[in-house]
Design brief:
By secondary structure, the protein is an alpha+beta fold. Helices cover about 25% and strands about 20% of the residues. Strand 14 and strand 15 form a beta hairpin.
Length: about 325
């Protein structure tokens, strides 16, 4: 779960950035990574790597169709990434869904049959599994996913503050571009080598529930103190960016709002490890094996018990959210 306060800024130091509009394939540093060893070496050194054309364009196009036909017209509540609460769609001035979907593998099959089915095919794709095996040294399992159309402009952060493997920093995120991501639509940014820096853990006067701003300020200070440089890779349809749980990253503001940024994010941990939330709570997983990889189905709305909880959340939202916030504070103190 990642809270709404997570989204209220731009590149953390408002530094001037040159956002590339194209990359010459002959000089593309990611294209030059020809072997699995070179991919792993680049990832270990920089805390991230881009794999070009990893997912077939046909599968990307199918996901876009499923989203536009099944999800976009839907009038009901869906769990959202920024708050982890059920919300109805919020749209930008150009009619892009701004509040991204949390855990597309757990949406209702009754309401979103093709979107859920093909989303699972993307998240379990053999090319993603192979890449995770290369980077982790063992198979991965999915603990969380998201779907974006509009851009909520993510401030600089480490994923490990919110969710991680029990082996600190071993979680790997992946960001798949379902379309060519225009520079004005809100590109993904990253701080290479930031994964080598230890930052305060969640809890005490840095807990996410009531003291989240202190952590945000600390991340900015780390960037300044270590003179970290922001990179903004150009991503086209089918490209996937992988990054480590301790690597500082985010999403730039949208400065040309007529452009969308349709994309899928997944967070994976090594198969041999347990899932940690807020660096304190060992979170049990609801795993199902899909196409050979274990996938977590939290609050799966195909399950009757979860449908009942969802009904309570949407009927008494303020009371439910306050109780959840207090429970988080108690768990990470």
């Amino acid at each position: 779960m990642i809270h709404e306060a997570f989204y209220n800024g731009t590149c953390p130091l408002d530094e001037p950035l040159t956002v590339p509009t194209r990359v010459d394939e002959q000089t593309d540093k990611y294209i030059s990574l020809k072997t699995e060893e070179s991919v792993k070496s680049y990832y270990d050194e920089n805390g991230y790597v881009v794999r070009r054309n990893l997912i077939p364009h046909e599968l990307c196009d199918e996901m876009l169709r499923n989203f536009k036909e099944e999800v976009k017209p839907y009038k009901g509540h869906i769990y959202r990434q920024a708050s982890a609460n059920p919300e109805k769609h919020k749209f930008t001035e150009h009619n892009y869904m701004l509040n991204s979907i949390l855990n597309l593998q757990s949406v209702s099959s009754e309401n979103f049959p093709k979107f859920k089915s093909n989303g699972l095919n993307v998240l379990s794709h053999e090319a993603i599994q192979h890449s995770l095996n290369t980077l982790m040294g063992e198979p991965g399992k999915l603990v969380q996913s998201m779907y974006f159309e509009g851009n909520p402009a993510t401030w600089a952060h480490q994923d490990c503050y919110y969710l991680d493997s029990e082996r600190d920093g071993a979680m790997i995120g992946m960001w798949l571009a379902l379309e060519d991501i225009h520079p004005g639509g809100g590109r993904f940014y990253i701080y290479p080598t930031s994964h080598k820096i230890d930052i305060r853990k969640n809890g005490g006067d840095f807990d996410i529930a009531f003291n989240h701003d202190r952590y945000k300020v600390l991340v900015k200070k780390i960037i300044m103190d270590f003179d970290l440089k922001c990179e903004v890779p150009m991503l086209r349809k089918g490209d996937v960016l992988f990054w480590g749980g301790k690597t500082i990253h985010g999403a730039l503001d949208t400065f040309e709002p007529r452009y969308s940024r349709n994309s899928i994010t997944g967070h994976f941990i090594p198969e041999s490890t347990r899932f940690m939330q807020f660096q304190t709570i060992v979170k049990p997983l609801q795993l199902k094996k899909i196409n050979g990889i274990n996938i977590n189905f939290p609050k799966d709305l195909d399950v009757a018990k979860n449908k009942a909880i969802f009904k309570v959340e949407t009927t008494f939202p303020k009371a439910f959210q306050l109780a959840k916030k207090v429970a988080i504070k108690m768990a990470v103190k």
